[in-house]
Specification:
The chain has a single domain, classed as Immunoglobulin-like (Sandwich), CATH 2.60.40. It contains no helices and 11 strands.
Amino acid sequence: MTPVLQALVLAERVFEDKGGQKIIAGTFNHLQLRRNQPPEEIEHPDGTKKVLLSGGQPGSPYAYISLTDVCDHTVLEFQFVSLTQNKVVFEKEITVRCSDRLETVEIILALPPLRVPGPGVYAFEIVCEGEVIGSHRLIATAIDG
């Protein structure tokens, strides 16, 4: 069974208070890139290069994800994709624990600094069993600096 994505929000910060409520601050869908600043990449043994995924650093954004109709141990792929180049920039596997599929599952995901390969259109996508169940688009433009 494919879960239902209720929300996917990109924000500067997502907090959880003592009562479990989520506070989403600084939502955005546009990113300005400084020219001539290459992204930090790692090269895999097969020669492919991807941006290093290590969230929680200063300047790192967060993703807020809300799902329902989730079976226990559902495996999701969280991907950052260049729609301009049709390639995955980075991805992270998420295993969702849920005892009741009627519950709403909220996930706060720390992301790496968004050092994108260049100007263009990007998307954060949630993928389940090879099917994109939702996305959040991000436009990157170049500025001098």
